[in-house]
Write a structure and sequence with these properties.
Blueprint (H helix, E strand, L loop, with lengths): L2 E5 L3 H14 L5 H16 L10 E10 L2 E10 L5 E7 L10 H9 L3 E6 L11 H4 L3 H8 L2 H23 L9 E11 L1 H9 L4 H4 L9 E7 L10 H6 L5 E8 L15 H5 L7 E9 L11 H6 L41 H26 L4 H15 L3 E5 L1
Parallel strand pairs: 4-5, 4-6, 6-7, 7-8, 8-9
Antiparallel strand pairs: 1-2, 2-3, 3-5, 9-10
Length: 399
């Protein structure tokens, strides 16, 4: 039986956001915590706001698909009308409920958000022989490999087909208003690789033809993946057919040791076709864990915190609970490859994390509104206002 919960707008994702501000401040004074929360709220409210904020409900379920059972989480805006479908794919080892800070913001902006995680890549992966042996690099190489990617693309196709069937037949109340003719694919980490492949990356070699029949109109890649492979980057990413928002940071380390350099995260955007409305949101000081959008520290984050990438100058970000960025808090813009955000106190650090969360929520929501809903206000905000609003600790590139 699906588990269904209704959540009011704004409170849904602002509550965990400000809880993170309070808990992240550590020994800072109550006044410092209050100032951090106030700064984060002010920054968020002065940024992009969707035309309407929706209350939404959440449904948790397990679907029996041809390839086997798969856990799903559905966030559905309240009220009548059709809403575009956002399909969210979590990172390696994450549960289906991962990415809550991002998914809730999109649901509040008027999207049906369907999250799924295949059993082969979910939390149970940390109990496999490779994980028990501490060979996380081999484990990740297997999951990021072409065979596993093709399997995830096939699963994506099954999930969307089942969503359409259940929505049309009234079998899943949360999907009744979902417009499967307008789909955005979004992913973090392992899910980011899947989202890019579904959008056309190296389609012939990676099995992109498996999802050609889906109506994908935009993609968001949180912590993009670009391990060197046989195909040139121009060939791989030049074939992407839809507009993409890539989100990364100068501290977006690789916990598995596959990519080596943090700069590799920016290569997908660099080689995306020009003139397609592609964007890169580059944060300064945000960890890989922040980009997961978790509203609390999961068990699997503890496991991954012990994994060290090959590039020892980077290291695994230790702040697995960290969330946002500093605006007017003494934080400085860091140079290439430099760690930290230059914040000078625990309160400033909490502000920094909270504001960077607001950055990702606002820019990604505006991108979806611009590309999926063709909202002229969102288009104008991305082109004219976003860069000024982001301030000194993040930048938005476009082509």
């Amino acid at each position: 039986m699906p588990n269904r919960v209704t959540v009011a707008p704004s409170i849904a994702w602002l509550a965990p956001l400000f809880l993170l501000v309070a808990t992240g401040a550590g020994c800072a004074s109550d006044r410092g915590k209050a100032e951090a929360a106030s700064a984060a709220r002010h920054h968020r409210d002065s940024g992009y706001l969707a035309e309407r904020r929706f209350a939404f409900s959440q449904t948790l379920d397990t679907w029996a698909l041809p390839s086997g059972p798969v856990d799903v989480a559905i966030l559905s805006p309240a009220g009548a009308g059709r809403h575009p479908l956002v399909v969210y794919m979590p990172g390696l080892g994450e549960p289906v409920g991962a990415g809550a800070l991002w998914r809730q913001a999109w649901a509040e902006s008027g999207y049906v958000v369907l999250s799924f995680q295949g059993p082969a890549a979910g939390p149970s992966i940390w109990t496999t022989p490779l994980a028990r042996a501490g060979d996380f690099r081999s484990l990740a190489r297997e999951q990021f490999g072409p065979d596993a990617l093709r399997a995830r693309l096939a699963l994506l196709r099954e999930v969307v087909a089942e969503a359409a069937r259940r929505g049309a037949g009234g079998l899943a109340p949360g999907l009744v208003t979902a417009d499967v003719g307008r789909i955005a694919v979004v992913g973090f980490d392992l899910g980011a690789q899947t989202a890019m492949a579904a959008s056309g990356e190296n389609a012939a070699a990676l099995g992109g033809e498996l999802v050609r029949d889906l109506h994908i109109v935009a993609a968001v890649s949180l912590s993009p993946y670009a391990e060197p492979s046989g195909a040139a980057y121009q060939t791989r990413f030049g074939s992407v057919e839809v507009p993409v928002l890539a989100v990364t940071s100068l501290q977006d380390g690789d916990p598995y040791g596959l990519t080596g350099s943090i700069a590799v995260r920016r290569l997908p955007y660099q080689y995306l076709p020009a003139g397609r409305g592609n964007h890169l949101l580059l944060l300064y000081g945000a960890s890989h864990a922040l980009l997961s959008g978790a509203d609390r520290q999961p068990v699997e984050a503890n496991r991954r915190a012990d994994i060290q990438p090959d590039d020892t100058s980077v290291g695994m970000p230790s702040d697995t609970q960290g969330r946002a960025r500093g605006h007017g808090s003494g934080a400085r813009r860091t140079s290439e490859g430099e760690r930290g955000g230059g914040v000078t106190s625990a309160g400033d650090s909490a502000t920094s994390r909270a504001v960077q969360i607001a950055d990702v929520q606002a820019v990604s929501s505006a991108f979806l509104d611009a590309k999926v809903k063709s909202d002229p206000i969102a288009v104008e905000w991305l082109a004219r206002d976003a860069r000024r609003w982001l301030g000194e600790m993040a930048e938005l590139q476009s082509k």
